[in-house]
Amino acid sequence: EERQEPEILKALAQAEVWIDEIRCGKYASYQEIADARNLPEEYIRRGSYLAFLAPKIKEAIINGQLSPKFTLRDFNRKYPARDWDEQEAHFLNG
User: Fold this and answer.
1) Core vs surface per residue 41-58: b (16+ CB within 10 A) or e
2) What is the pTM of this model?
3) For residue 5, what pLDDT is reported?
4) Using CA atoms, how far apart are residues 75 and 45, in angstroms rounded to an integer?
């Protein structure tokens, strides 16, 4: 059963944009992105974390297959491990 989670999907897309803006040199830091968008730097930094999720988790988000028990707060507030295996254990097998 596929289910869309538009809030998480939108946040993932935004995170990818922010990281691409740093990678391509448009901005040099999260602070510069925050200043350009009139947002707190912490918001950009936390939100950007989604760009570093394991590919299988991104795929589950994009395909609407992430468990409904997870909300955007689970990604932004808890800062799951950077290790992709640990991420997958938490978000896909948990």
Assistant:
1) eeebebbbbbbebbeebb
2) 0.85
3) 64
4) 12
